[in-house]
Amino acid sequence: MPPAVVELASYYGNGAAQPRGLLRANMVASADGAGDVNGRSAGLSGPADKMIFNVLRSLADLILVGAGTVRTERYRPVHADQIWSELRPPGATVPPIAIVTGQLDLDPDSQLLTSPPAGAQTIVITTAAAPADKRAAIARHARIIEAGEDRLDVTAAIGALRELGYSSILTEGGPTLLGHLVAAGLVDELCLTTSPLLAAGSAGRIIGGVALADATVKLSLRHVLTDDGFLFCRYARQG
């Protein structure tokens, strides 16, 4: 394992020392607050950000993502050569991906659903009212969890994942999913990369789609790292 990875893991915690029940978000934004460039986050990233991305995945039991982000960012299953097994508990599989989608608006034949590594079956979290035909098609490959009747209940979703043994959860967005998780008081930490870039335009922020009941959520800064003009901040929710 490269020395830089060992050092980064010391800032973000190692697999054995991860707090149980942690829900951590990892997001990237431009210096002027844009959450994407031309609809995707790749234009905001850099080598160090990608390394932290993989370190955080290596430390997680499961990766949680919204269906819109799956489509936009063209998600694929996590494979062993993309993470560092030394950061995981002995014998642990790669972290599976769980997709949140109220209407099951997914390609049932996508690689994310059909080709996960052994022991890391993709999970799809939806509602009881989701279309039955789409449910049947997706259930051929993925595990389906119901969380809510007509509207998806993120609190029930996280509870169901933890009942399956996924205590340390990493969400990579998108903004709507992160907004619902924050509004429900479920996000414990935010890892935010600030890119040395002014994006302007009409790009959204890293949180969207919901209004917070108290308007703001207070955070405590755990650390700030820097590399090539990028800032890497780790925040913890207060209270």
Q: Would you give an account of this structure?
A:
This protein has 239 residues and is an alpha/beta fold. The protein has a single domain, classed as Dihydrofolate Reductase, subunit A. Helices cover 25% and strands 22% of the residues. It contains seven helices and nine strands, in the order αβαβαβαβαβαβαβββ. It has helices at 3-12, 47-59, 67-72, 111-114, 132-138, 154-163, 175-183; strands at 23-30, 62-66, 97-100, 123-126, 143-146, 169-171, 189-195, 219-227, 230-237. It has a nine-stranded mixed beta sheet with strand order 5-4-3-2-6-1-7-9-8. Strand 4 (123-126), helix 5 (132-138) and strand 5 form a beta-alpha-beta unit. Helix 1 crosses helix 2. It is globular, with a radius of gyration of 17 Å. The termini are far apart. The mean pLDDT is 92.
